Task: inverse folding
């Protein structure tokens, strides 16, 4: 008896009395499992839950099971998991010592078990790996357990520890008494041994007993310990109740998780607790898998003695309770007190300014007095009230005005009262349609909703403004958020933001449940909690406001449904108050089956963390891939699966995908089957982009895979290159043949044209040369004529004037007559000589072209000129000597050279008395020098400088014919015609030398 009392005391000490209500999901062969015996459960590093059964293993992602079986093993019966989750090495043992390795989310047969051998041999004894309660063993089997720094060897009557570093073994003073499985388990690096005799649990670390714990649950013979070393979790099952066992700060503690009704303890063989999602996975030996969820919501129903738990209007009562229209007060634990309000309408309940509770009964108001703890009632007749509030000075009431009860014509009245009694009426404002809800907009205006319109009413002018025009909206509720925004809730038309007297419609959720919202409760983090007829929705107000500014932004509602802890998904609205915010922070919402209590700051939003695109079904055959999916063109249908480990409400998994990187590619939503189907793809590289929502703030993660569709041979690049090359080659030969054909034709034409062109070009070339020479000659002649005209004018004018003087003279004397005749003679003689020179120059221009290709002897030409001037020279006592080379033949124009030589010899003869004139020649290749030297009076230095300068710039220099005569000017002009030059030099002793530099070349 004493022991029982102690057991109950310790049980109460360690086990909380209250536990969370839970919801359970059942899985068996009817809905996904390969077999109904779930031997072990674990979770890999990627977030997938794995189940071992007697007909394969299954991977669970919260939505469906992916079954793996038909491995090349002796059996498909799998037992327990072991290994290391963090290192992505999870092994699964079969009953025939064969193993699977789960790595990178896929299982495969593996014989590499260096770190995790199933059996080890020590001192001729086989030790079986012990890593969970379900270790398969026969009676009398020895076990071993691995830790980071050492290993334990477990015999039936002894426990030995071996340190990996020192290799030292030590025996512990404990007796491991067991039938098939030892009574030891591990948490982290600590081994715990249950001593039934002393009713204690020993903590052993590195082979040493470090502490002792008195835990009645663990030492109770009725308790079953279910533990898993790979999960690092320990559970105790006792009297259909599951407890967790944790070791923290040197203390071993047990905590009650859940009590299961009508379930036999021995049926559970494996447990896994997912702390993140607050779920328990129970593996049964015969009934498959049970998933137990612990919700953050508490749903309170009326006591069994009461009618159904349908709630509408409620108001806060105290710090943590609400009171209903029935007068019943509820908190999270249920019914607290019953005020027993009678005949109250479910759709109206409120406090007045004094804290009295106002209810509606028929057409009358009942006011339950706070002073008498809501027992006394004051009745106000003929007030069909819909909504009520006070601004501290006046009362504002929204009333129904039934004009015709037969056809139920209902209008609305806004009544303003001067005091709390609702008797002293200040004003009434009438409007059409039945009223539903009103709220203070600002100091001078109210917003009033009806079954058809939304009005803005001025309290100063009593004017009514219709804010929705001809459109009709059934206004259910009007909520003002903390930042002053007004939100209008309608029946069937969704949620609106009132901004600048204009309604902006918010988007619906995927199932259109937001089309009929009941109310909005706003928490401290800026989230709206919106109750509907099908679930509770959460959304950041900032997202809605962003959508109001930019309609292209997305709005993602988070949905809570029955699996979160409600009795039913349908919440209730239509009353004046459809939800409450309590002083302790709890929110309370009425539903069709209970009152829902929750703390919005403690309710979690579960979003998936990662997605994996590694599976596809191609033409009904499953195909695994990484990053790149390779396909043939004969594929008719492709189903690409998007694997997401997520263990909460599937409505909150938002996945969208688009095919291609084009900005115009449209994002398509992915359904709950989580697959993206493609009917056909052309060859080439395609990309599939997938994004998934991972937070309330609208953040996404993105994944991209490449889909490579191989081309047919005639679509490949090399085929196109070869084909193009062949076409180019064919075109080349065709062009080459055509070119050769045309070349032959052209050659024939070219021969004909060439002969004609040559003749024509020769003619043109000659004409061009002639034209140039003629142009040059014409220019010289123009210049010469201009000079002659200028120089001949003076002597002719002088002769004319002299002759006129003779004719005009009256007295002639001999001396004067002689003088005049002498002047006329000299001028006439000068003019004659000048004219003769001009005639010779003109003859040269006429005839020199005819003999410029004649070869003749220079010596002979000089000799002819010598004979011409010998007589004149002899009269002057002068000798002409011809020392020109007799063998020298030249091509130089004979007429021109003859005129040049003539002028030069003539000058020498005129100015040489009793002297010699020597003519010599030198020859060097094509250049001939002809030197004419006299011993006459010599040329003045001014003349030499004048003729030298004139020779260098004969085109532009002014000719001084009258001053210097015609002869040497003619010589310079003639030399220019045969590209020759003359050098004037005064001899050292006496006379002048004329050196002609000539080019002896045919057609020069």
Result:
């Amino acid at each position: 008896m004493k022991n029982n009392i102690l057991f109950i005391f310790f049980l109460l000490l360690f086990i909380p009395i209250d536990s969370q209500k839970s919801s359970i999901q059942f899985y068996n062969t009817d809905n996904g499992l390969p077999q109904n015996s779930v031997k072990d459960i674990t979770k890999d590093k990627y977030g997938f839950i794995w189940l071992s059964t007697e007909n394969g293993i299954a991977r669970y992602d919260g939505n469906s099971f992916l079954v793996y079986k038909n491995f090349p093993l002796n059996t498909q019966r799998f037992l327990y998991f072991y290994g290391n989750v963090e290192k992505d090495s999870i092994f699964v043992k079969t009953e025939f010592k064969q193993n699977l390795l789960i790595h990178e989310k896929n299982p495969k047969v593996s014989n590499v078990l260096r770190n995790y051998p199933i059996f080890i041999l020590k001192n001729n004894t086989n030790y079986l790996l012990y890593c969970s309660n379900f270790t398969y063993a026969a009676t009398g089997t020895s076990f071993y357990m691995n830790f980071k720094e050492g290993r334990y060897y477990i015999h039936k009557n002894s426990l030995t520890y071996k340190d990996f570093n020192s290799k030292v073994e030590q025996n512990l003073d404990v007796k491991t008494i067991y039938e098939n499985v030892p009574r030891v388990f591990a948490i982290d690096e600590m081994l715990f041994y249950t001593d039934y005799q002393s009713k204690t649990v020993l903590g052993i670390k590195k082979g040493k007993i470090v502490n002792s714990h008195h835990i009645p649950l663990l030492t109770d013979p009725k308790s079953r310990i279910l533990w898993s070393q790979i999960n690092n979790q320990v559970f105790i099952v006792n009297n259909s109740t599951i407890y967790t066992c944790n070791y923290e700060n040197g203390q071993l503690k047990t905590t009650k998780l859940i009590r299961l009704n009508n379930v036999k303890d021995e049926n559970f063989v494996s447990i896994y607790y997912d702390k993140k999602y607050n779920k328990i996975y129970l593996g049964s030996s015969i009934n498959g898998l049970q998933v137990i969820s612990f919700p953050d919501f508490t749903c309170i129903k009326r006591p069994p003695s009461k009618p159904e738990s349908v709630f509408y209007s409620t108001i806060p009562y105290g710090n943590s309770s609400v009171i209903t229209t029935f007068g019943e007060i509820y908190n999270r634990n249920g019914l607290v007190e019953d005020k027993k309000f009678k005949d109250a309408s479910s759709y109206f309940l409120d406090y007045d300014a004094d804290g009295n509770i106002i209810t509606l009964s028929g057409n009358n108001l009942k006011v339950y007095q706070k002073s008498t703890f809501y027992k006394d009632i004051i009745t106000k007749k003929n007030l069909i009230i819909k909504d009520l509030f006070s601004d501290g000075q006046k009362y504002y009431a929204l009333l129904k005005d039934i004009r015709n009860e037969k056809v139920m014509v209902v209008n609305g009245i806004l009544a303003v009262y001067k005091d709390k009694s609702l008797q002293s009426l200040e004003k009434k404002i009438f409007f059409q349609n039945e009223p539903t809800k009103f709220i203070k907009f600002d100091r001078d205006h109210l917003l009033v909703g009806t079954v058809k319109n939304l009005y803005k009413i001025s309290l100063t002018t009593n004017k009514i403004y219709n804010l929705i025009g001809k459109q009709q909206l059934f206004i259910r509720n009007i909520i003002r958020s903390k930042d002053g925004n007004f939100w209008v809730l309608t029946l069937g038309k969704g949620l609106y933001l009132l901004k600048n007297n204009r309604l902006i419609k918010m988007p619906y959720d995927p199932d259109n449940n937001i089309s009929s919202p009941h109310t909005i409760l706003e928490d401290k983090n800026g989230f709206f909690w919106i109750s509907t007829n099908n679930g509770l929705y959460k959304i950041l107000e900032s997202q809605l406001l962003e959508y109001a500014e930019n309609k292209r932004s997305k709005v993602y509602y988070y949905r809570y449904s029955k699996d979160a802890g409600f009795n039913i998904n349908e919440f209730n609205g239509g009353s004046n108050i459809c939800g409450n915010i309590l002083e302790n922070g709890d929110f309370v919402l009425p539903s069709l089956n209970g009152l829902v209590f929750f703390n919005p700051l403690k309710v979690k939003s579960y979003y998936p963390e990662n997605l994996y695109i590694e599976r596809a079904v191609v033409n009904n055959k499953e195909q695994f891939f990484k990053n790149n999916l390779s396909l043939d063109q004969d594929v008719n249908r492709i189903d690409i699966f998007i694997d997401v480990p997520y263990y909460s409400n599937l409505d909150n998994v938002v996945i969208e995908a688009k095919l291609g990187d084009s900005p115009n590619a449209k994002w398509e939503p992915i359904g709950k089957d989580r697959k993206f189907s493609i009917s056909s793809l052309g060859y080439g590289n395609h990309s599939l982009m997938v994004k998934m929502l991972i937070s309330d703030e609208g953040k996404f993660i993105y994944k991209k895979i490449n889909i490579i569709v191989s081309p047919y041979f005639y679509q490949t690049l090399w085929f196109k290159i070869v084909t193009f090359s062949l076409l180019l080659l064919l075109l080349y030969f065709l062009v080459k043949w055509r070119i050769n054909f045309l070349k032959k034709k052209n050659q024939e034409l070219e021969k004909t044209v060439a002969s004609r062109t040559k003749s024509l070009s020769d003619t043109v070339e000659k004409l061009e040369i002639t034209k140039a020479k003629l142009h040059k000659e014409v220019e010289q002649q123009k210049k010469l004529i201009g000079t002659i005209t200028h120089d001949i004018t003076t002597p002719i004018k002088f002769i004319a004037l002299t002759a006129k003087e003779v004719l005009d003279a009256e007295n002639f004397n001999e001396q004067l007559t002689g003088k005049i005749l002498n002047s006329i003679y000299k001028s006439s003689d000068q003019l004659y000589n000048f004219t003769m020179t001009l005639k010779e120059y003109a003859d040269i221009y006429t005839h020199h072209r005819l003999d410029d290709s004649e070869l003749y002897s220079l010596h002979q030409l000089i000799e002819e000129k010598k004979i011409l001037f010998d007589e004149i020279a002899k009269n002057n006592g002068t000798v002409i000597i011809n020392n020109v080379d007799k063998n020298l033949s030249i091509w130089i124009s004979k007429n021109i050279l003859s005129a040049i030589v003539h002028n030069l010899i003539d000058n020498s003869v005129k100015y040489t008395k009793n002297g010699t004139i020597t003519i010599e020649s030198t020859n060097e290749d094509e250049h001939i020098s002809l030197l004419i030297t006299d011993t006459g009076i010599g040329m003045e230095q001014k003349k030499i400088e004048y003729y030298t300068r004139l020779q260098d710039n004969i085109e532009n220099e002014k000719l001084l014919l009258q001053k210097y005569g015609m002869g040497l000017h003619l010589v310079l002009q003639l030399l220019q015609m045969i590209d020759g030059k003359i050098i004037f030099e005064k001899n050292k002793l006496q006379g002048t030398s004329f050196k002609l530099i000539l080019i002896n070349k045919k057609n020069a």
Q: What stands out?
A: The radius of gyration is 64 Å. Residues 1-20 have pLDDT under 50 and may be disordered. The CA atoms of residues 725 and 731 lie 10 Å apart.
